[in-house]
Amino acid sequence: MDLKTACPGKVVDAETAMSKIKNGSRVFIGTGCGEPQHLIRTMVEDLNMQDIMVYQMLSWTFSDYVDDPRFLRRFSLKLFFISSSLRKAAFEGKIDYIPSYLSQIPRYFANHRIGLDVALIQVSPPDEHGYCSLGVSIDITLAGMQNAKLVIAQVNPRMPRTWGDSFVHIDDIDYLVQYEEPLVEALPSIKNSETSSRIGFYVNQLVDDGATLQIGFGHLPYAILQNMTNKKDLGIHTQLITDGFLPLFKKKVITNRKKTLLPGRVVASLCMGSEALYRYVDNNPMFYFRSSEFVNDPTVIARNDNLISISSALEVDLTGQVCSDSMGYLFYSGIGDQVDFLRGSAMSRGGFSVIALPSTAQNGTVSRIVPHLSEGAGVATTRGDVNFVVTEYGIAELQGKSIYQRVMELAQIAHPKFREELIDLAKTRHYIFSDQLPPSQDDLIFIEGYKNRLTLKNGKTVEFRPLLPSDEFAYRNFFYSLQEKTIYFRFFYKMKLFSHEVVQQQWASVDYRKNISMIGLVRIGGHQEIVAIGSYADESDTEAEVAFVVREDFQGMGIASFLLADLERIAKENNFKAFSATVLRENIAMLHVFKKRYPNAKVSGGNDVTIIMDFDDAVEPGEATDRKSVDTNDCICPEPEGR
Predict the structure, then answer these.
(1) CA distances from residue 451 to 459, 466, 467, 518 in whole angstroms, order as listed
(2) Of 247, 306, 394, 583, whose CB is crowded by the most CB atoms within 10 A?
(3) Does the pLDDT at position 114 exceed 50?
């Protein structure tokens, strides 16, 4: 459509359009990479313009002017989110930050809590029906223009035409300024790729095939997405599309087939990245752009089953409070979409949230896992909203956990050099037991290789991983779930109590190489329970004592046989050559498990049978002709001495 023919009275140059803005006006400007740069520059350069109050979600172009005192005397910037380019200005008090949930901002415009006189937006050229597209910036831009008294649009042929609620008819625009220029490009800077990659590795473990994801902008989200290439049929419902998604689109990792809300479509409201990304979303029906009041509405988000929200933070305290928008008293970013998606994911069937952050800041000198939030820091996310917290040292699960458990979970994923200090400070606040041992100060990334899983004949999956200090309550609950006979077979006497002191004695010798316990976890009713434990402890440089316990309702499913082989694998990695075990002679089932794998094991003793099992004699399933089914009655052998 030729605009000069269709609406000649509306087509003007930028100077003429800006002259329509009166002094004292409240001006809304389109978001981020969709902002009308030419209109902004023309407005600033019009020295007749005075006392203008500007509202914008995410700003780039104004960073060229905020250090000019003359600009600050004429314009007041009010931002809902602080971009990296304006962070210094925010620290210096040159801009005003409005803390708001993204889902609520359009409502502020509609009910005139924030009144708007003018909206400056950027659109694509109109089609033959007169419809332009807001392209990469729908978010709060649509509501901003709908509730402004005067709408001025920069018509840029480089703006993509996006599907969804992005279309604006030329009848709803007061002035049209035709001006072609490249869109703002926004690519995250790469920081400490090893740390980011390790965080991505852990987050990847939490994401199942078929999940629907929300994730933000920055180097850390970019690294997390890079770790998703092994997934299948992911869906996307997110505020922001970035270049980090492009490889997943092209490799068909993101298909949106399993989404329960708008299957087959990527739901978003904003796009920030490179020219390649803008060309990818251009006229691509896979993308469905909607305003923030839809995309960020927790009740809408919750309509996606298995919605996983992945966001970042500046610091997390030991009780689970999260700060994401300020460094002490200095405003750093914004509340943005974090709380909307945390609450939406919590209401999603099978959904949950992840807060991901490096364990340290300022070149490793400051811990981001802290005893308390910094003075002046804002609590963007309450301790009641947090589920998983991930650093490069592991995963902490907080939902439904007590303060004691939270302290142990979070100290466990803090940088090793800060763990003991965090535990000591937690003791002074009476968060934890006064005799609590701190987590190991080793970097335990190597134990990730110990993890394994077994699918049972009933369809359930048992996940195996090392037992950690934060598992104390789950370990305790496991013990008290066992029958008296099971406990007797394990400890050789009818042990009645499994106290905190008993557990502490066990942790005192754990090093995950010479001494380790592997737990088997099964998901039951939305959470995981321990159903089995297998341990070994060194007897000499080459021999370790091994022990097992399997909960009664999971006996007879091959779990002990699997654990025995798995512990052998780990023991071999740590230079052991053989296992030993002491078993009550009446514990026929456990003796059979050992003899199945080590048919040439040396057996001696009376009522207490001692077995020596050389790893070179191990028989894999199916190798021995007289081998019985692995579905034997798994039972118990005692815990290794000193455990």
Answers:
(1) 19, 7, 11, 9
(2) 583
(3) yes
Q: Dig out the tokens for 536 from the structure.
A: 């070994």
What pLDDT score does 477 carry?
84
**Alpha-carbon dihedral sign for residues 426, 428, 433, 437:** positive
- Residues 6 or more apart whose Cβ sits within 8 Å of residue 358: 192, 195, 196, 199, 220, 368, 391, 392
Neighbours of 349 (CB within 10 A): 12
Which residues are registered as beta bridge partners of 582?
A: 610
Q: Taking the model in full, what pTM does it have?
A: 0.87
Per-residue pLDDT of 48-76, as tens digits, reads 999 999 999 999 999 999 999 999 999 99
DSSP symbol at 184: P
Q: How far apart are CA 607 and CA 604, in angstroms?
A: 10
What is the distance between the alpha carbons of residues 41 and 199, in angstroms, rounded to a whole number?
A: 40
Side-chain-side CA neighbours of 369 within 13 Å: the count stands at 36
SS3 for 191? Answer: coil
Work out the pLDDT band at 192, boundaries 50, 70, 90. Answer: low
Q: What is the pLDDT of residues 401-425, one digit of tens each?
A: 999 999 999 999 999 999 999 999 9
Check: CB of residue 482 under 8 Å from CB of residue 535.
no
Residues 152 and 20 sit within 8 Å (Cβ to Cβ):
yes
Distances (CA, A) of 279 to 157, 161, 221, 362, 619: 12, 10, 22, 37, 58
Q: Which domains does the chain have, with CATH numbers?
A: 3-178 (3.40.1080.10), 193-428 (3.40.1080.20), 449-617 (3.40.630.30)
Structure tokens that stand for 476 in this block: 């305790």
As a whole number of angstroms, the distance between CA 199 and CA 467 comes to 20
- DSSP per residue, 86-143: GHHHHHTT-SEE----GGGHHHHHHTTSS-EEEEEEEEPPP-TTSEEE-TTB-TTHHH
Q: Is 48 helix (H, G, I), strand (E, B) or coil?
A: coil
Counting beta carbons within 10 angstroms of the beta carbon of residue 514, is it exposed (0 to 12), middle (13 to 18) or buried (19 or more)?
A: middle
Give residue 13's pLDDT band: very low, low, confident or very high (50, 70, 90): very high
Burial (0-12, 13-18, 19+ Cβ within 10 Å), 553: exposed
